[in-house]
Amino acid sequence: LVFAYAVAQCIVWILFRTLVLGVLLRKQSTSQLITRWYIKHGGDGEEAFSSWRAVYNTATIMTYGSFGLVALVAYHWGNADIGNLVLFHTLGLLLIAFHVWSSRSVYETLGDFGWFYGDFFARDSSMLSLAPPDIKLYYTGIYRYLNNPDKVIGQAAFYGLALISRSWAVFALALFLQACNFLFSSYVETPHMEKIYGTQIHRDSGIVRTVKKAVNKGVGQAVFVDEDCSNDTDTRDPADKLSESSGVAGLLASTAKPVKDMLLETKDLLSTTTARLAEKTLPAELTNLDHMGAYSLKLMPGAAWRASGRGAANKGAKTVYYLGESIRVAWQAPASHSRRDWIGMYPVTANFSDQITTSGSKGCYVYTHPDDNLLAEMVVGDSVFASSVTGVTRARVGKNSSGMIEILRGEALFSSSALPFKVGTYELRLHHGGTHAVLVQSKPFEITTCNLESIVQLLRDDNAPAAESVPEPVAAPPTDAEANALEQLAQALLTIANKAFAVTDSHTVASSDGLDTDGQIPGLRGDVVVQTDVVEPLESVQDPFSVGEVLEEKQARRIGYAIKEYFGVEFASDVLVHAAKHGATVQDVAKRILEAKQALSAYSSTSIKP
Q1: Residues 6+ apart with CB under 8 A from 336
Q2: CA gap 427, 273 in Å, rounded
Q3: How much is the pTM?
Q4: Fewest Cβ atoms closer than 10 Å to its Cβ: which of 20, 79, 90, 475?
């Protein structure tokens, strides 16, 4: 029982060191996962490497220690011959000594930085004090003879313990450990080395080269070709090479595909069934509603359309808005419409029915034409977004309709907390009378991001009327590249933060005597007039990174997501809340973003340019 427990513990530590840490290290190589996580939670690249070093060192010690415990429990010679006892112990101790010498040589060559895979974290010595001043691939020390000593002779001590303990179980465990280390080297370390050092890597080790030269010299012709110096190319069909490298992956993918398809079909079936059941519960008044053709929604051009310089929208072109930008929509409805009609904003994939909305709006909705009773019902936590009528026309609706009807036109504004604040494709739905019955849908539109240089120009004061002139921000005197980059980033962050922190309120301003000039439009005299104000609280980069010295969790999540999408740096919401609580300004947060981008720039193709 003790032996089984020791073996199980050793296997767990082997898998943790090679499989779990191997996956993390591979993610670190491809996407800087560990560094990004620490930056997201308020740390930096050096702290990420220090923590990784501690975890990896602990896992290595536990792997070696648990293996030694297995060998100790399995150690049993009984009445064995004294000659075999001396021989096995001597060979085992020699293998252990060989392992110690090999590991020490590797450590002396690589140092602390290389031993703990420091080049997976940064190649900039200004960030990591352990990094050598010039990180290049040098074949010195033991690496003159072996390209990867740990893969070849780095497990000698485990076989030595197997000989000393004279246990086939220990020998099998040593084989398992070496196989795991081989996979770790092949799928984690080698791809990263090829990506970072490229042609500096020697295909053949010093020993292999020496053997090849000796064979070629003895035979008198080039039996072996030096791959590092050869310019020959692989003439095999690319399809053959692809099939060789991806055979296992293709097999796994083909096996997993039926299961994935079955799950997707089940999900679609449930969603469709829900939508069909919901359609049967449509309010009776909707089926008897007159003038359905009078309802319409039309998206108004945003910053992306204005920046393109087009005089009119191209037919078929998708409407685009930038993340955080206010979205204006023109609506139309007959004068007899319900005063509780409302517009909701949803991802295009959120609802499976065009007649009924089955998903929640999550606060992204606006009342089209509320009356006094509806406005009086609004309490804290309810929507405070509403629009009002901007004009009235008389028109004939439908080919077979008789007579003219009054059609109201209005404009609704989605801003601040009424926006989803997430990149994606969305649609607007006009609902009838406080229900989820859909009267009309808008065309799909996209919410995306723009580049850093355009944020201030495109998004600042997008709520101001087009006729007003918006003063350009006064740029700081040019100093150096880093100062200019910080100033540009701070101004962009100020603009984005204002979109996330904006206070939007719809309120009654007066009682209208009618919307026409002569007051002759019937049915609208005394109608309530609603005005929507959008107030952006921050004025300069020296203002606190909060609203009223408080940054709410929802606001922190919104601004954190915007920082990730616009600047490529992810911060946890609690980090932003903590910064605001301790009086951080917009400039302070911008400086932290710039430092984070510089920490990640070694493996990123994007950088901040002044």
Answers
A1: 290, 291, 405
A2: 22
A3: 0.61
A4: 79
Angle made by CA atoms 293, 297, 298, in degrees to the nearest 5? 125
- In whole angstroms, give the CA distance from residue 289 to residue 435: 14
Q: CA 176, CA 557: separation in Å to the nearest integer? A: 45
The string over 513-538, giving b where at least 16 C-beta atoms fall within 10 Å of a residue's C-beta and e elsewhere, is: ebbeeeeebeebeebbebebebebeb
Name the band, by pLDDT with cuts 50, 70 and 90, for residue 249.
very low
Distance of CA 416 to the CA centre of its chain: 22
What is the structure's pLDDT at 424?
93
Q: Count other Cβ atoms within 10 Å, centred on residue 203.
A: 12
Handedness of CA 169, 171, 177, 179 (dihedral sign): negative
Which residues, in sequence order, are CB contacts of 422 under 8 Å at separation 6+? 323, 447, 561
- Report the candidate in 479, 500, 488 with the shortest Cα–Cα distance to residue 452: 488
42-46 long-range contacts (CB < 8 A, ≥24 apart) are: 42/571, 42/572, 42/575, 42/578, 44/127, 44/595, 44/596, 44/599, 45/121, 45/122, 45/127, 45/128, 45/599, 45/600, 46/127, 46/128, 46/129
With beta carbons less than 8 A apart as the criterion, state whether 314 and 402 touch. no
Report angle CA 518, 521, 525 to the nearest 5 degrees.
90
Question: pLDDT by residue (tens digit) across 378-422?
Answer: 654 445 577 777 788 887 776 655 567 888 888 888 888 888 889
Residue pair 531/571 in contact by the 8 Å Cβ criterion: no
**CB neighbours (10 Å) of residue 574?**
14
* pLDDT value of residue 110: 67
Q: How far apart, in whole angstroms, are the C-alpha atoms of residue 182 and residue 540?
A: 56
Structure tokens at 572: 């946890």
Can you say whether the dihedral through the CA atoms of 351, 353, 354, 358 is positive or negative?
Answer: negative
User: How many C-beta atoms lie closer than 10 Å to residue 294's C-beta?
Assistant: 23
For 52, residues 6+ apart whose C-beta sits below 8 A from its C-beta are: 28, 34, 116, 117, 121
Question: For residue 3, what pLDDT is reported?
Answer: 87
Say if CB 409 and CB 390 are below 8 A apart: yes
Radius of gyration over alpha carbons of the chain, in Å? 34
Q: What is the pLDDT of residues 10-44, one digit of tens each?
A: 999 999 999 999 999 998 888 888 888 888 888 87
Mean pLDDT of all residues in 594-600: 82
The SS3 of residue 51 is: helix
Report yes or no: 307 and 458 within 8 Å, Cβ to Cβ. yes
